[in-house]
Structure formats: structure tokens, C-alpha cells
Design a protein that fits this description.
By secondary structure, the protein is α+β, with helices and mostly antiparallel strands. It is built from five helices and eleven strands. The strands form two sheets. The protein has a five-stranded mixed beta barrel. It has a four-stranded antiparallel β-sheet with strand order 1-2-3-4, with no helix packed on it. Strand 10 and strand 11 form a beta hairpin. The mean pLDDT is about 80.
């Protein structure tokens, strides 16, 4: 009886894994726990498990979610699992079935040279004078954000140029009114002007450069 309970449990784990992670399953990957238990079975028990699993896959092959086209004669060069066909932003391509654990990819024969769009370069600003700085240092529960907590700061330059968004950690104010800054920024998907904090170069009114360590950016 224990034998059949073990086999049934392995089959149930595999079935659940198929529902939760169909892409990885399509590439031939076991549920980690099911594989571990399967390896403990003796040969007669493995034959029973193989038969039950084969029946399970056959019964459900047309019912499990969106069809995934597995490229049977192709293996990922990074991890060795099967590749699957995907239709992305730039057309068809082959991707590793273990994504996001593995980012392996190969060109599709019907789309060998995808027309990738070049990313828009960031805008560079020079000698921008800080006129206003707001740090959103309070969390939703009303407590002050700790030093490692992601925090958004809003910065205005030259009276009314802003707000620019500075994403960093902790509530510490990184720039002060009167600081003269050079930096690069891009618009994000919301339309916010986000500063690349690593590109910031700042100096005080008297021209003295402010070390990055002092600004904690």
C-alpha cells in the first residue's frame, strides 16, 4: 500500500507542477520534490510511476492551458533543457523553457534577424541648480523609512524645472537647495523624469565638489 501511496503522491506533485509552471514542465523538468521522491523508488515502483505519469500526460495534453510548442531537437546551450517557441515584441524566437531561471535564447528560422529597436539615449543636463527637494520618507503605516528601504525623492531645478525623480534608499536628503548638478535622465513608462543616480555630479555654490559618499547616492 505504501508503494501506491508514494507513486500517487509523485503523480499528484507532477500534475500540480504542470498547472503552476506549464512552461518549465514543457521543457521536461520535474517538480523538484517529485523528482527527489522518484529517485528513492526501486525499479518495479519506477515502472508503475512511469506508466501512471504517461497516462496522466496523455489524458491532459489537450486540456492544460495555452499550447506550448516544444522544439524537440533543440537544447538550451546554457542549461540543456528544451527550447520552446515564443512570439515576442520582435517576432518569433526560441527561448529556454526554464525562463526566468535561465535566459537562454536562439533565433527562429522564420525570423533570423529581428529588427531590434535601439534604446533612446538618456538626456544629459548640465549646471542645474537645485531649488526644491522633497523626500517621501514615510511609509504607508506612518513609520519613518529605514536606511535600506527604497525611497523616491522629487527634485526641482532652476525654479520650476521638475519634478525629477531620484530613486534611492532611505530618507536621507541627497541634494540641497543651491547645489549645482549635472546628471542624466530618462522618462519611465509613467512619464516621470527619472534621474540616473550614478550619473550625478554635484558641487556647492562656492564650486566645491560634493563627494558621492557625502550625498549617499
Amino acid at each position: 500500500m505504501y508503494q501506491f501511496m508514494g507513486v500517487n503522491y509523485i503523480v499528484c506533485l507532477q500534475e500540480q507542477y504542470k498547472f503552476d509552471k506549464p512552461q518549465k514542465f514543457a521543457g521536461g523538468k520535474w517538480s523538484p520534490r517529485a523528482r527527489q521522491l522518484y529517485d528513492f523508488l526501486d525499479e518495479p515502483e519506477k515502472k508503475i510511476a512511469d506508466k501512471e505519469l504517461a497516462y496522466l500526460y496523455e489524458v491532459h495534453k489537450d486540456k492544460w492551458g495555452k499550447p506550448i510548442k516544444v522544439i524537440e531537437d533543440s537544447e538550451c546551450t546554457k542549461c540543456g533543457y528544451k527550447m520552446i517557441e515564443k512570439d515576442g515584441k520582435y517576432g518569433l524566437f526560441y527561448a529556454c523553457s526554464q525562463f526566468p531561471a535561465c535566459w537562454g535564447s536562439e533565433p527562429h528560422p522564420d525570423n533570423p534577424t529581428p529588427a531590434f529597436e535601439e534604446k533612446e539615449p538618456p538626456t544629459e543636463e548640465v549646471d542645474m541648480v537645485v531649488t526644491k527637494y522633497v523626500s517621501f520618507s514615510m511609509k504607508r503605516n506612518g513609520k519613518r523609512a529605514k536606511s535600506g528601504t527604497p525611497v523616491t525623492h522629487s527634485v526641482w531645478f532652476n525654479e520650476d524645472d521638475g519634478p525629477y525623480i531620484l530613486k534611492t534608499f532611505g530618507p536621507i536628503q541627497h541634494l540641497h537647495k543651491g547645489d549645482i548638478c549635472s546628471f542624466k535622465w530618462k522618462s519611465d513608462w509613467k512619464g516621470d523624469w527619472v534621474i540616473n543616480r550614478k550619473s550625478i555630479k554635484a558641487r556647492k555654490k562656492n564650486g566645491q565638489e560634493i563627494p558621492k559618499g557625502d550625498r549617499r547616492v
